[in-house]
Please model this.
Amino acid sequence: MTNVLFRVVEITEETPEIRTLRLVRQDDEPLRVRYRAGAHVDVIGPTGVLRQYSLCGAPDDPRSILIAVKREPASRGGSVAMHQVSVGDHLKISEPRNLLAVAEDADRHVLVAGGIGITPLLSMAYELYTWGSEFELHYFARSRETAAFVELLEERVEFADRIRPHFGVPRAGHPAVLRTIAEELTPSTHVYTCGPDGFMRQVGDVLGPVVGADHVHVEHFEAAEVDTSGDRPLTVELDTGEEFEVPAGKSILAVLEDNGIEVFKSCEEGICGSCVSGVLEGTPDHRDNCLTAADRESQMALCVSRALTDRLVIELY
Model:
C-alpha cells in the first residue's frame, strides 16, 4: 500500500497519556484522497514501527489530518516513539481505510465512546453535524482529567450540545447508563462504539436488542484472542485457479506471500482490514476484529482467519 510523507505541524498534549498530532503533506499539497468519517491510516513512526490510528479530525478539512496517540504501558515501541515526535518531524502515512462508516439510512445516530475510543467517533460527529443528521455522542472515561478533547468538545465545536459526558462512572455502572440511552432508541437507530473490548460488549449487550445487532457498528483496537490448538491444514484456491496448501500454524496470507502472490497487508492481526478478501466457496472460520456480521457472509481476513471446511475459494481484492 502506498505511503506518503507527512509533516507534523501541531501537537496538543490532551492528557499526560494522550497527544494529538496534526499533519500535512510534506509537499504542502492538498490531500489527494478524501476520507469518510471512521477511517484509519497506517502510520510508520520514527523507529519504523507500523501502527494504525483513527483519523479524528473533520473529514472536510482538505489540507490536514489529525490522529491521537495514547502512550501504552506495555507498548512494543510504537506509542512511546510517537510521544517523542516533535513539530517538524516526518511520518509515513498510508491511504485511509474505512471499516466504520456512517449508515446513511438511519433516522438517528448514537455514538458511544470509551476512553481513547473517542477518536473515530469524533470524526463521525463532525460528519454527521455537517450532514444535518440527528445524533448524540456519549463519552465514557475514568475521569475528566484522563479524557481527550474535553476543551474542544465543551467549547470549540458547533455540536457541543450533542455531547453527553459520563466521566467517573465505574465499569459496573455503565449498563445502567446504557439502559437510559436505550429508552430513546428505535429499530431505525444506528449505534457506533469504540473503546476497550469489555466496554463495547456492554454497549452491544444493552443497545443491540433495541436497534438490532446489525445496527451496532464496532471499531476494534485489539486483536481477538483465539485458540489455535485445533487448527488443521486446508486448501485455498484463488479465483484464477491457482491452489495452495495451508498447513496448521501458518496463515493463508503467509502462504500466498511465500508463493509470490501480492496481498495488501498491514497489522496482520485481523484489525485493520487490509487483507480482507472475498469468499466464493467454503466456510471461513472468522477470527478477525474488523468485519461486521454482514461482511462475514462473503469476506474474510486472510491474516488470521482459517476455514471450517477443508477448502476455500477466495477472490483477492
